Amino acid sequence: MIFCMTVAEPDPDADAALEDCIARIAGGDKDALADLYSRTRPAVYGFALSIVKNAHDAEDILHDACLQVWNAAGGYRRQGKPMAWLLTVARNLALMRLRERGKTQELTDEEWATYCKNVQKCADRCAANGFVGLFHPHVDSHVQTEEQIERFLNDTNVDLCFDTGHHVYGGGEPISFYKKWAKRIPYIHFKDCDLAVKAKMDENKWSFAKAVTEDIMVEPGKGSIDFTAMHKALDECGYDGWCVVEQDLFPVKSFDVPLEKATIGRENLRKAGF
After folding, report:
1. For labelling, which of 70, 102, 136, 170 has a CA lying 20 to 30 Å from the CA of 150?
2. In which band, very low, low, confident or very high, does the pLDDT at 81 lie, cut at 50, 70 and 90?
3. Which pLDDT score is estimated for 104?
């Protein structure tokens, strides 16, 4: 599953107008919600449509996104990127809709071959322009489990952006997998996964978006991954790339929460040797 979004030049006036709408919505102004809807409908609808490939579902997502904005506007902190916030809301709703529709079913061999061919084409175009294109296996996509990831690596020359949390979520063991495929992993996302929440998710048939609201992805060191062993594996294999620490938070009730969680994650990783 590949999501593409065209990024336009920032428009400070438009961003300021959207942030003003959000502030008014936080105060219960329904006219402000209507104003926000009219200003953002083309972008949010188009983005949702690019994911769900269905006009009816995209329209539902647009409306649900506005409802979430109405409920969460009080926690929004002015930061100059209101559209990015809105598109994040839309993306999570779209992924939830895909899961409900069962669109992440196994590909046929023909579909798989087309999928790999297109990803390879993207990576080759990146290389032709001086960039390195990597592939990120992801929850609720066609490349999630260890078996699927290894099949992808065998069928393409595209290396991985390896996400430890997504790997655990997909039923994998990240340390042994990294050791096996270290030469194909030049970039890593550190994320931890709470398997107790995953068990509740499976039992109650939650969507991934719902599981995120229940803190399925936690600060490094608070989930199932042994980051001390991960550090040792990276050292043994001579890893010299970047490790980006990620934390899934949605919705964010307070914008003080990310800094608190980032601080905890940093301290836990320091204790693990990083």
Report:
1. 102
2. confident
3. 53
The residue ranking higher by pLDDT, 218 or 256, is: 218
HEC profile of the chain:
CCCCCCCCCCCHHHHHHHHHHHHHHHCCCHHHHHHHHHHHHHHHHHHHHHHHCCHHHHHHHHHHHHHHHHHHHHHCCCCCCHHHHHHHHHHHHHHHHHHHHCCCCCCCHHHHHHHHHHHHHHHHHHHHCCCCCCECCCCCCCCCCHHHHHHHHHHCCCCEEEEHHHHHHCCCCHHHHHHHHHHHCCEEEECEECHHHHHHHHHHCCCHHHHHHCCCEECCCCCCCCHHHHHHHHHHCCCCCEEEECCCCCCCCCCCHHHHHHHHHHHHHHHCCC
Does residue 257 share a domain with residue 131?
yes
Domain that holds residue 191: 109-271
To the question of pTM greater than 0.70 for the whole model, the response is: no
- The reply to whether 91 falls in a domain is yes
Whether 122 and 86 map to the same domain: the answer is no
Claim to verify: residue 128 and residue 184 sit in the same structural domain: yes
Q: Report pLDDT digits (tens) over 231-254.
A: 999 999 999 999 999 988 877 777
